[in-house]
Design brief:
Helix content is about 30%, strand content about 25%. It is of the alpha+beta class and about 140 residues long. Strands 1, 2, 3, 4, 5, 6 and 7 form a seven-stranded mixed beta sheet that branches. The radius of gyration is 15 Å and the shape is globular.
């Protein structure tokens, strides 16, 4: 069984520094989390690893999103095409609505979205510890 531990928004905010590709850590629900086995006690080392991964993502946000985006996502039924005109524009306007570290293997998951054209929908991405895409799903 897996448990979800929210990371303190006060720790996340300085790492994000207002980056436009990331949702506020103070938004509800909190999308900045660590996954661990049920009963596991989150230690400071886990939070340090999480923040290090988040720093990497902030530094490389555009490249990570481009690497995870597929032009065929633009054909998804949930896209408001009045608000976004092309796959390129869609990719350039996606933001990390969540950022999750799986402690079991140091993989990172995120939901990429934009309320203006993907309201209620998102692209779920998982990267391995070395930032290679493991899976992509639009829903």
């Amino acid at each position: 069984m897996t448990a979800v531990f929210d990371v303190d928004p006060q720790a996340v905010q300085p790492v994000l520094g207002g980056h436009s590709r990331f949702a506020s850590p103070f938004a509800e629900p909190n999308g900045y989390s660590i996954l661990a086995e049920e009963g596991f006690q989150i230690k400071e080392t886990a939070v340090v690893l999480y923040l290090d991964k988040l720093r990497e993502a902030v530094k490389n946000a555009d490249a990570l999103i481009r690497g995870a985006f597929r032009p065929e996502f633009f054909g998804f039924y949930g896209i408001n095409r009045k608000a976004v005109g092309s796959p390129e524009e869609m990719c350039s306007r996606l933001v990390f609505d969540s950022f999750v570290l799986d402690l079991s293997n140091a993989s990172v998951g995120a939901c990429l979205s934009n309320r203006e054209f993907l309201f209620g929908h998102f692209i779920e991405c998982w990267w391995d510890r070395d930032w290679k895409v493991l899976s992509l799903t639009i829903c």
